[in-house]
Design a protein that fits this description.
There is one protein chain. The protein is α+β, with helices and mostly antiparallel strands. The protein folds into 2 domains: about 110 residues, 3-Layer(aba) Sandwich (Rossmann fold), CATH 3.40.50; about 150 residues, Tumour Suppressor Smad4. Helix content is about 30%, strand content about 35%. The protein has 8 helices and 16 strands. A hairpin with a 2-residue loop joins strand 14 and strand 15. Its cofactor is Mg(2+). Belongs to the diacylglycerol/lipid kinase family. It holds the Pfam family YegS_C.
Length: about 290
């Protein structure tokens, strides 16, 4: 009987993780897998559990959760032979979006895992941390910082209020970026370094990024008025912001981003203060896909 490990974040998606876990466990068991159920009391313990799976040479680690839970698991799985299976249960689910996984049907997502079709994807590495989707370093990261300091309200409304609060005082940020040795200096509203296309629940900031091409996509949104920024924001969800005259794009394998007073986020998780150097890690993660 094949052992499959299932790591659950019971609090993800307002408690959806726990409910979905029951569905996944029974479906895998019915298919003949021996399920090793894992649940960390906090992020550190969850990471230890994921690392133990790699050490035990478990073939597949299934994550039930959102992008933050995937981000955590990837720190253990990067460069290993243990495959990632994903049943989305978060609010953003941009990793699932990048992999073409069912995002609202836990049974269908579990069937992808049972199907066993494998793909090797790139990761991006910043310092000692890996990420799957997009590193954001600008207005969006400042909003994230403010939202994390707020205790009320919960969910998306907290980010909406944080956005309005920051917009009042925001001014363009002076950046120095280097892409494969070529340096650029400019002011911008934000810079993003994408391994895949979207972050923040479907905002396709690095539109056109391919998750297994060995290349990082770098996007800058140059200075614009606050009104224009509000007008442009919805275009991120369709990817049509690429037609805006303030959009800039570069591509490379090693990217350094520097700016004063900015903390970068990736996969929605706090990374570290800039400057940061990001390198592509080609085919560093084995994943199960439709």
């Amino acid at each position: 009987m094949t052992v499959i490990a299932v790591l659950t974040n019971p609090t993800s998606g307002k408690g959806r993780g726990g409910r979905i876990g029951d569905v996944v466990h029974s479906r895998l068991s019915d298919t003949g897998y021996q399920v090793r159920a894992l649940q960390g009391r906090d992020g550190d313990e969850a990471l230890d559990l994921a690392r133990q799976c790699v050490e035990d040479q478990v073939e597949t680690l299934v994550v039930i959760g959102g992008d933050g839970m995937v981000h955590l698991a990837v720190q253990a799985l990067a460069g290993s032979q243990t495959r990632l299976g994903l049943v989305p249960a978060g609010t953003g689910n941009d990793v699932a979006r990048a992999l073409g996984l069912p995002r609202k049907d836990a049974e269908a997502a579990t069937d992808v895992i049972i199907g066993g079709k494998e793909r090797a994807i790139d990761l991006a590495k910043a310092g000692h941390k890996y990420y799957v989707t997009v590193l954001a370093a600008g207005f969006d990261a400042i909003v994230n910082e403010r939202a994390n300091e707020m205790t009320w309200p919960k969910g998306q409304m907290r980010y909406n209020l944080a956005t309005l609060a920051e917009l009042r005082t925001f001014s363009p940020i002076p950046y120095v970026i280097e892409v494969d040795g070529e340096q650029q200096r400019f002011e911008a509203m934000m810079v993003a370094v994408g391994n895949s296309e979207s972050f923040g629940g479907g905002m396709r900031i690095t539109e056109g990024a391919v998750i297994d091409d060995g290349i990082l996509d770098v996007v800058a949104i140059m200075p614009m008025s606050k009104l224009e920024l509000i007008r442009t924001f919805p275009k991120l969800f369709s990817g049509t912001h690429v037609q805006h005259p303030k959009y800039r794009h570069w591509a490379g394998k090693v990217v350094t981003v520097a700016a004063p007073g900015i903390t970068a986020y990736a996969d929605g998780e706090r990374m570290s203060a800039l400057p940061l150097t990001v390198e592509v890690a080609p085919a560093a993660l084995r994943v199960l896909v439709p």
